[in-house]
Amino acid sequence: MTFLCVTQMNAQNDIEANFSIIESLLQQSQTQGASLIVFPENFVCFAAGRQRETAEQFEVIQQRLEQLAHRYQIWIIAGTLPCPFRPDGSAITDGRVRTVSLCISPEKTEARYDKIHLFDVQVDDAVGGYQESKYFEPGTEPVVARTPFGDIGLMVCYDLRFPELALALRAKGAHILTAPSAFTHTTGQMHWQLLLQARAMDSQCQLLGAAQQGWHGEKRQTWGHSAATDSLGQLMDMIETEGTGLITVPFDMEKQDKIRRSMPLIQHHQLIRF
Predict the structure, then answer these.
(1) Could you confirm whether 157 is annotated as catalytic?
(2) How far apart are CA 234 and CA 212, in angstroms?
(3) For the segment 145-173, what is each residue's pLDDT rounded down to a tens digit?
(4) Which of 41, 66, 132, 137 is catalytic?
(5) What is the dihedral of CA 104, 151, 245, 210, to 10 degrees?
(6) 137 a catalytic residue
(7) In the chain, is it the N or the C terminus that has fewer CB atoms within a 10 Å radius of its CB?
(8) Are 131 and 155 within 8 A, CB to CB?
(9) Distance from CA of residue 90 to its chain's centroid?
């Protein structure tokens, strides 16, 4: 049996303060005997308008996270980090950055996913309008990371609203989907749990949704409720408290295989063209 940890944070713009919380969560995961820990979106720095500044530290932050993974002998889904270059190393020259989720083993970074779907929407909250495409360049490729305990399909936040991505990750071999997120309080209240369960049900993957929770500055409020669902789309556990937290859930590959054999959704899937 493998154990997986899902975290919740209230990250602010102080990178060192956030790293102190990150390490405390890693220490907790060690006591749980976990093989994997998932952090939320913007977990190292949650500072609107400072993405490019944080992105300039991408490689230094990545090295620190690799050192932590080695120290605690755990796989880390490093939430999201802003990055000033593409996977091929080419620089983004228009002032934007990419939202990157890293899968880090105790030895090294094993996979990088660049967020595909960007949050350009109007929301009835204090911020009102979000336009991620103004600050971020979208990624283009679904990514699955291979691990000893199961293959991980990497998603980020707004990606949860697009079932095609979850299905593409399943088709590429995913057993587990991770979704570092910072859902607004308004949209999270309506759809967060529903989306986690729906994408798990669609893909027959266990889904780990690590969320930001609380206020970040004076205007931005995130919903939280970090959670895990099983391969049937049933809720396994959820954090109901405010601020920092952690849950640990089991992952059973044999149970998942039985679910997939009993209802072979992927084999039954028919492509419908619009």
Answers:
(1) yes
(2) 22
(3) 999 999 999 999 999 999 999 999 999 99
(4) 41
(5) 90
(6) no
(7) C
(8) no
(9) 24
5, 45, 157, 205: which one is catalytic? 157
Q: What angle do CA 207, 249, 42 make, to 5 degrees?
A: 55
The catalytically annotated residue of 103, 115, 132, 205 is 115
Contacts of 264-272 spanning 24+ positions with Cβ under 8 A: 265/202, 265/204, 266/167, 266/170, 266/171, 266/204, 269/167
Task: Examine the residue annotation and report whether 41 is marked as an active-site residue of this protein.
Answer: yes
Q: Are 234 and 255 in contact (CB under 8 A)?
A: no
Q: What are phi and psi of 194, to 5 degrees?
A: -60, -45
- What is the H or E stretch that residue 20 is in? helix 15-31
Q: What is the pLDDT of residues 63-108, one digit of tens each?
A: 999 999 999 999 999 999 999 999 999 999 999 999 999 999 999 9
